[in-house]
Write a structure and sequence with these properties.
Number of strands: 18
CATH architecture of the largest domain: 3-Layer(bba) Sandwich
CATH class of the largest domain: Alpha Beta
Distance between the termini: 51 Å
CATH superfamily of the largest domain: FAD/NAD(P)-binding domain
Number of helices: 13
Largest sheet: 7 strands, mixed
Number of domains: 2
Shape: globular
Helix content: 25-40%
Length: 452
């Protein structure tokens, strides 16, 4: 069997070129592209799926977190999207006492996000994956993409990796971490889905849910039933909600292995139907229930974490640590879904020692999104520099938006000043972010992006 194939060098045509190239059209990439364009940059956004929105629009991960449990502290592009979302966004009644504050309609937000980008003049190209990073003389020039008419180049003076998996940064040779320290396993993944045809009133009036869940548990422990997220099931099953994404179908493995990801995705979809068949037999109100929709892909929580100038840690999260190069606030819990696929998650513990105190938040620093090796390459979103534990907090979409807005604005400021992102005037960047609606308070005096 042939193990290597030599492909001769060839000239490639340039498909597009811009001031800022953003790879990845999830919430982080949208925020980065929108923010850079807002400050006068010519921006190209590449997205591998047919529409922008990432996990929100394609995997039904549709809850946003904006509150430190006393007040909303994430605004900026996130608030812009909330306000533009209109009928596609609902604010929870418990706002702002819980971190979870808004429920977004996955289909409607596809349109909202694209319109936001279009109005800023961002050139968005979906159905394109960055397959190779082009680095010359210590700087990234752009990426190669495979189009229907062959391989081509997309170039940018500044490049932002918002792929989630850190594909562009890894392809450019930047070092990264993967998984937890003890065994290299990443957080478990989930297939989100929703149902229709449930008689919600009968489900709520029934007292059988605990009995059904106990049966699921016994069968699972005997190897006769798939794993499930018990905490979510205890909440969702008695409520019997229609058209609301259910977060309870776990799988675990390597999301960077395409063949393994294929198998895991199928397994998760099959698990959903196993739950459904049992509930139709056992749970009052579910006799006519149907699986209405599943995510286009698995909800992947963790893969590469690209090593930056700074690294967000558990201690920074829980201690609500402030940073001189802050681009915004975060507050989410140390939310780890079992890397071995049991469905257990620390979120359901709700312990106060794995989250910032009520009414407090930590800073997300610019340093976790930039590096000194390739100074015109930044990252935003769940591939930013963090430990396994720190990552479990900053990976949620609202926090990824904060990073995206920070890095996108930093790219624009760097281009305007003829410097790299690691050397922008941090105080000027923070002033720009505040002017653009970002909540940014309690910033320490020192203002160097690379400071500790």
């Amino acid at each position: 069997m042939t193990s290597h194939l030599h492909v001769r060098a060839r000239d490639l045509s340039v498909l597009a070129q811009a001031d800022v190239l953003v790879c990845g059209g999830g919430p982080a990439g949208i925020a980065a592209a929108w923010s850079a364009a807002r400050h006068g940059c010519k921006v190209i956004l590449l997205e591998r799926w047919p529409s922008v929105g990432g996990m929100l629009t394609n995997a039904l991960v549709n809850i946003w977190h904006t509150s430190d449990r006393k007040k909303q502290v994430i605004y900026g592009v996130a608030q812009e999207a909330i306000e533009r979302g209109g009928e596609f966004v609902a604010r929870y009644d418990h706002y702002p006492q819980n971190c979870e504050t808004h429920l977004l309609d996955s289909e409607g937000m596809r349109v909202v996000f694209q319109e936001m980008l279009d109005e800023r003049g961002v050139r968005t190209i979906c159905n394109l994956t960055a397959v190779e990073s082009v680095v010359e003389d210590g700087r990234i020039r752009g990426v190669l993409v495979d189009t229907k008419t062959g391989r081509k180049a997309v170039l940018g003076s500044m490049v932002i990796d918002a792929t989630g998996d850190g594909d562009v940064a890894a392809g450019a040779g930047l070092p990264f971490e993967f998984g937890r320290a003890e065994d290299g396993r990443v957080q478990g993944m989930t297939m989100m889905y929703n149902m229709r045809g449930i008689d919600s009133q009968r489900a709520k009036q029934s007292e059988k849910a605990p009995e059904v869940i106990e049966k699921m548990r016994r069968m699972r422990d005997a190897g006769e039933f798939p794993p499930f997220n018990e905490g979510a099931t205890k909440f969702l099953l008695p409520g019997g909600s229609n058209y609301v994404p259910w977060n309870m179908a776990p799988v675990a493995g390597n999301p960077l292995d395409e063949e393994e990801l294929t198998r895991l995705t199928h397994r998760a979809r099959a698990q959903v139907y196993t739950y459904w068949r049992l509930w139709r037999r056992e749970m009052p109100g579910f006799e006519d229930a149907w699986v209405n929709q599943m995510g286009f892909g698995l909800g992947v929580r963790e893969s590469r974490r690209v090593r930056g100038i700074k690294t967000l840690t558990r201690e920074m999260v829980v201690g609500a640590v402030k940073q001189p190069d802050a681009v915004g606030h975060g507050f989410w819990i140390i939310d780890i879904h079992d890397p071995e696929g049991s469905g257990y998650t620390t979120w359901h513990d709700r312990r106060e020692d794995i989250r910032p105190p009520v009414g407090e938040s930590y800073h997300m620093p610019l340093g976790m999104c930039i590096n000194e090796t390739i100074p015109n390459l930044g990252v935003a979103g769940r591939c930013a520099s963090s430990t396994h534990e720190g990552h479990s907090s900053c990976r949620v979409q609202s926090h990824c938006i904060v990073m995206g807005q920070g890095v996108g604005t930093a790219a624009a400021l760097a281009l305007d000043g003829g410097v790299d992102m690691a050397h922008v005037d941090v105080r000027k960047l923070q002033a720009m972010l505040r002017a653009d609606g970002v909540y940014l308070e309690d910033v320490p005096e020192e203002a160097q992006a690379g400071s500790s």
